[in-house]
Specification:
single chain, mainly alpha, 10 helices, about 80% helix, globular
Length: about 270
């Protein structure tokens, strides 16, 4: 009971208080400066728009979340596989790594329409954009974790005449777990951004649409309150995915990696 209370006070209360302060300042700013609704709606107007379009926002959040999770999962698998490839040879890493940097430097908004043309409109195009945007952190962290090995440990494995597969399975992969968890935390947020950017370019249709389509359509109609409600939903979606990835990562680290959080034990 005490532990749960400390967790609420230490983890949940500070961001909740900060959010309340932001909403209060937001309300005061719109009241003092008499900002027009089509530019900055009041928090109450955003709340009312969310209530009015609750069903549409819920369906859009689910569709965007599905696209983001699919892109993130593909990035996690492909990025880890690429890191394994890079770890096999310095020549391979030096030859291909500059092209991986392209994924980080290219403006995704500029190439999103091209990606949509290649993979088609709708869900597949959204997943492709989300995958490309979230791939680079996984490649970078997987490569670092698989190649940044203590030289003494490598020499120890050589002394015992361990093969390449044993070194990979018992040394390189365990060392990369912490790096992969860090990369996943970065990548999961980027996957939501990629899904929304993909939806702005690809859309879905009149019957099914994601948050990116809602934001574009609402701003086009100057329904800023509805757009703000959709933006809030995208923020909550990112927070939910990040929290899930963090909890899963901490669970993995606590069991299979020395850097994981350990519960202190008190001897009687």
């Amino acid at each position: 009971m005490i532990r749960a209370r400390n967790w609420v006070l230490g983890t949940m209360l500070p961001p909740a208080v900060f959010f309340a302060l932001v909403v209060l300042l937001w309300q005061l700013a719109t009241s003092v400066w008499k900002l027009p609704t089509y530019l900055v709606p009041t928090p109450l107007e955003v709340f009312e728009a969310g209530q009015e379009h609750f069903a549409d926002l819920l369906a859009a959040t689910r569709l965007t979340g599905a696209g983001a999770l699919a892109g993130f999962a593909l990035a996690l698998v492909f990025g880890t596989a690429t890191g394994l490839l890079f770890a096999q040879s310095r020549i391979i890493e030096r030859s291909l790594y500059p092209y991986a940097i392209f994924l980080q430097t290219v403006p995704i908004v500029a190439i999103a329409p091209v990606i949509v043309m290649w993979f088609g409109h709708g869900f597949s195009g959204v997943v492709a954009v989300s995958f490309i945007l979230s791939l680079f952190p996984i490649i970078t962290n997987a490569t670092a974790g698989l190649t940044t090995i203590d030289a003494n440990l490598l020499e120890l494995f050589e002394v015992y005449d361990a093969g390449a597969l044993a070194v990979l399975w018992k040394l390189r992969l365990p060392n990369a777990v912490g790096y992969l968890v860090t990369g996943a935390k970065i990548s999961c947020g980027l996957s939501v951004i990629g899904a929304i950017v993909g939806e702005i370019s690809a859309g879905f249709g009149s019957q099914s649409f994601g948050l990116g389509y809602v934001i574009t359509a609402a701003t086009g109609k100057l329904d800023t309150a509805y757009a703000f409600a959709a933006i809030l939903c995208s923020t909550l979606l990112s927070l939910a995915i990040f929290t899930a990835v963090t909890l899963l990562g901490n669970w993995i680290l606590a069991r299979w990696h020395v850097s994981g959080p350990r519960r202190a034990t008190v001897k009687p």
